[in-house]
Amino acid sequence: MEAICLRRTKEQNILGLPRKIMKICSVDLSAEERQLYDQMEVEAKTAVQDYISSGTVRSHYIAVLGIVLRLRQTCTHMDLCPKVHIATLPCSNKEELSNNPELLKKMAAILDGSEELECPICLSAPNNIVITRCAHIYCQSCILRTLKRDRPRCPLCRHDLSESDIFSAPTEQSNAEIASSGESSRITALLKLLSEARDQDPTAKSVVFSQFRKMLILLEEPLKTAGFNVLRLDGSMIATKRAQVIKDFGVPAPNGRPTVLLASLRASSTGVDLAAANRVYLLEPWWNPEVDDQAINRVHLTGQTKDVTVVRIVARNSIEERILALQDQKRMAGPAVYKLNINDIRTLLSL
Questions:
Q1: d(CA 98, CA 93)
Q2: Which CATH superfamily includes the segment(s) 31-176?
Q3: CATH code of the domain occupying 10-29+178-336
Q4: Residue among 210, 259, 202 at smallest CA distance from 230
């Protein structure tokens, strides 16, 4: 492509885009959050170190992702973290795992709602996530379609598979049933940032990105109580509903109050125009920097007339600071190496 194409990047600013101002807001975890996080981190290091020592990281890759995910969830909000032990795989081999349906269901519960996994069949974030007896993750509808073949097999490992070999997480709570059981240092910090932005410009619109749909729901009530108009955009919505939310976000609020769009990171990363906003808040860092960048570029794109301020919220002395360092390494390595390897896992857990 380099031989026949002329590439122009944003850094050249040929289109005359406004500035993009990047900031980091470091947050101290509360005493309760810190106690839980430190306990989980010790257990996480022990579990992953055992996998590394025994050379079974590859066969337990989903479990390792689940461990990393739980640490990240605890930094964001304790209510995101399923009430099960951090050591999701106390066994040392796949045979023990395949004979433990309850453990498989726990793994599905931990991984459910995260956007960093990808269904190998549809290549999207799993919808109604399920885990097979051979410890592979799929959308429920995708794998059930696959099982209708003459000889149903797992698309990844080719093992024979039946519907009885598929396990799902417990039924997800409805939006009305999801409520915070306590304060979150992350929500407190976000409310302060949004209030300061409102004081500077009462008509400013903001987009808050999160990788966890439950976190978006937990944010709605505190933001409404603080006097913000709130819209939500996530992957569970049908296309027409998402289009309507984006349209509503583009018009002035009827009561003059500033509008905040709570947006799923993956659902809003491409093909969406959010230039009506000029402030972006990333609630959690993700080790894949391209996804973060794509989300930011939904606001900083052609049609934007104001400088765009991007604030990354990061918990001090946590895995999130190491994720930011890993992002920098990934950017330098290039776009072709975005899967976590053993060295990345060591970096994230300080092993």
A1: 9
A2: Zinc/RING finger domain, C3HC4 (zinc finger) (3.30.40.10)
A3: 3.40.50.300
A4: 259
Instruction: Give which of 75, 7, 45 is closest to 313, Cα–Cα.
Output: 75
Asked whether the beta carbons of 140 and 128 are under 8 A apart, the reply is yes
Spatial strand order in the sheet of 129-132: 137-139, 129-132, 166-168
In single-letter form, the type of residue at position 332 comes to M
pTM: 0.82
**For residue 12, is pLDDT > 70?**
no
Residue ranges of domains in the chain = 10-29+178-336, 31-176
pLDDT digits (tens, 9 = 90+) for 33-68: 999 899 889 888 888 888 888 887 777 777 787 788
Please give the DSSP secondary-structure letter assigned to residue 153: B
Cα-Cα-Cα-Cα torsion 114, 117, 122, 124, nearest 10 degrees, comes to 50
Q: 233: closest CA among 306, 186, 146, 298?
A: 298
Give the span between the Cα atoms of 190 and 76, in whole angstroms: 11
Separation of alpha carbons 284 and 209, rounded Å: 8
